[in-house]
Amino acid sequence: MTGDIAELVDAARNGSTRAAGRLLSLVESTRRDEVLALLSATPVQVLGITGPPGAGKSTTVAVLVTAYRRRGLRVAVLAVDPSSPYSGGALLGDRIRMTAHINDPGVLIRSVAARGHLGGLAAAVPAAIRLLAALSYDLVVLETVGVGQSEIEIAAVADPTIVILNPGAGDAIQAAKAGLLEVADLVVINKADRDGADQTVRDLRAETHAPILKLIAAQGDGVDELVEAIDAHRRADTPARRSARARAQILSLAQSRLQQHPDLDRLAESVAAGGIDPYAAAVSLLTEPTAPSSPA
Amino acid sequence: MTGDIAELVDAARNGSTRAAGRLLSLVESTRRDEVLALLSATPVQVLGITGPPGAGKSTTVAVLVTAYRRRGLRVAVLAVDPSSPYSGGALLGDRIRMTAHINDPGVLIRSVAARGHLGGLAAAVPAAIRLLAALSYDLVVLETVGVGQSEIEIAAVADPTIVILNPGAGDAIQAAKAGLLEVADLVVINKADRDGADQTVRDLRAETHAPILKLIAAQGDGVDELVEAIDAHRRADTPARRSARARAQILSLAQSRLQQHPDLDRLAESVAAGGIDPYAAAVSLLTEPTAPSSPA
C-alpha cells in the first residue's frame, strides 16, 4: 500500500498533476497519515483569498496565478469555496476563469473536501499544504467563502490573508460581522470601477490597520500593485503583528466553539425568562466543559 | 444612616429630583445594599439607546423624552456615554439638547459612574433601575457608547435596545464589528436627510432582522414612527426572540471575558511562532479557568 503511495509521490514530483490529485484525495481519506509519513516538512508560501460570495475571489485567484507563473513559481490552488467553479481537480460551470491554466503542468487546481470530514478544514488543509510543499509547489493559494469560521481557519494557515470585498457597505458589514477585518493582512476592493469604491476604502480605513487596495481583477487592473503588496507584507511582517492576528484567530475559534456549547440554548432561555443574568450565564458557559475534543 | 435614606426616598417620591440624585449616588457607592434593602422590586420600562459617537443619541433621547412626557410618563435618563452632554445630573457643554427638560420635575437626567466601579455597569445599572422604578419613574432611558462591551451590557437590561447609526458604511461597519447588530431590537438611521440613507437601510436589511427606521432627530422627523416602533416591539416580542438576543448577549460577554484571559497573549505568541495551532490554543483558552469571579 505504502509502495503505491511512494510511486504516486515520484510521479507527482515528475510533473503528473493526476498523481498529485490522487495524493490529495489520499490526505483527505483515512490514509492521510500513511501519505504524510513519507513526506519531509518543506516550507511553502501560502496565500489566503477570502470574502463574500460574488466578490470576485476566483477571478482574483486566476490573475494572481498568472502573475506567479510569470515568475516561474509552481502554484497549487485549493478551493474551499463551495461556490467556486472548480470541483475535484476539474473546472465546472460556464464562468471558467482558469482556462489559461488547465493544461499548465505548473498549476494544480483542487477542491478541498467539505467541512466535518476527518476533522474538517483544520486538519485537511494543513495536511494538503504539507503534501503540496513536498511535491515542490512554491505557492499554495487557498480560496474560501463561508460565514466566518472557514475564513478564520484559512487565516490561521495563510500569510497573507487577503479579504476581497466589493464597493458598498454590504460586503464590508458582512466581513466585520464575521470577524474577518481583524484577521485580514490585506483588504482588496475588487470591481473598483463601480460607484462608491473610494468611499468604501475610506470607511474601511477607520476599521482595519491592514493596507487597502483597489482592484479590477476582470481587467487585470491593480494586479501588479496587489502582488507588490503581498511581497511587501511578507517583508514587513513582525512577530507583534503575527501575535495580534493569532490573538484574533484564537478568539474567533473559541467563539465558534462557544456557539456550539450544549448549554448555550438553555442558558439563553433562562436569561430571556429572567431566571439568571447574562453575566452569570457567560461565566457558566466558560466554566462548564464543552464537548470533549473535536475541533468546533 | 438608614433613616437618612428613608427620608431621601420619601422626598424623591414627593418629586425632589435632588433627593433622587442623592439616592442614585448612594446606589453607586458602598451603601448600595442599604438603599436597595428599603425598596420593593417594581417593574419599569427600560429603553436602551446606543451607537457610535456623533450618531445623534442625545438628540434622539431628548425627542423621545418629549414624546413620553406628552403621554404623561415620568422619565429618567441614565447616560453611560462619556461623551454625553450630561454630568452628575447637570447639563454640560454648549450642545445642550435637554434644556426643555431641565426644570421639569417629571424628568431626571443623570450620568452613571464609570466602568469598573463597584462591579461596573453590570452591577450599577440594574441597581439604579431598581431605585428609579421604586421612585415611580415609568420609563428609564439608558444612553451608552463604547467599543461593544458597554452596549452589550445595556442591551441585556433594556427592551428594546435601539441602535442609532448615521448614513454611510462607517457606522454600520463599526456596529457590526462590536456585535451590536446582533442585539439590536430596532435600528435607527439618524440624519436620514443625508446622502446614502436609503442605501444604508438596504445594506443593513441583509445583516439584521431588526426593523430599520429613518429619523431626523434634530428636526423631529420620524419620532412618531420611532415611538410606534417601540410600542410595536413591546407588543410583538416573543420568548424566541428574547432567547435569540440573550444568546447573542451571553456570547458577547463571554468573548469579552476571553479577551481578558490571562493566557491569551502567551497563547497568541505561541501560535504566531508556530509552537501550537490556533485550534489547540482556542481549546486551551476555554479549558483553563479565567480570573475567578468579577464581571469582565
Features:
13 helices, 48% helix, 14% strand, two-stranded antiparallel ribbon, 7-stranded parallel sheet, 9 strands, Rossmann fold, homodimer, 2 domains, 296 residues, alpha/beta
Q: How is this structure best described in words?
A:
Two copies of one chain form a homodimer. The model of chain A is unreliable at 87-96 and 292-296 (pLDDT under 50). By secondary structure, chain A is of the alpha/beta class. Chain A folds into two domains: 43-248, P-loop containing nucleotide triphosphate hydrolases (Rossmann fold, 3-Layer(aba) Sandwich), CATH 3.40.50.300; 260-287, no CATH class. Chain A contains 13 helices and nine strands. In chain A, α2 (17-27) packs antiparallel against α5 and α5 (120-134) runs parallel beside α6. In chain A, the strands form two sheets. A seven-stranded parallel β-sheet of chain A has the order 5-2-6-1-7-8-9, sandwiched between helices. Chain A has helices at residues 2-13, 17-27, 32-37, 57-70, 120-134, 149-157, 169-177, 180-183, 197-205, 223-236, 239-259, 264-272, 278-287, and strands at residues 45-50, 75-79, 86-87, 90-91, 107-111, 139-144, 161-165, 186-190, 212-215. Chain A is globular. At the A-B interface, α7, α9, α11, α12 and α13 of A face α7, α9, α11, α12 and α13 of B.
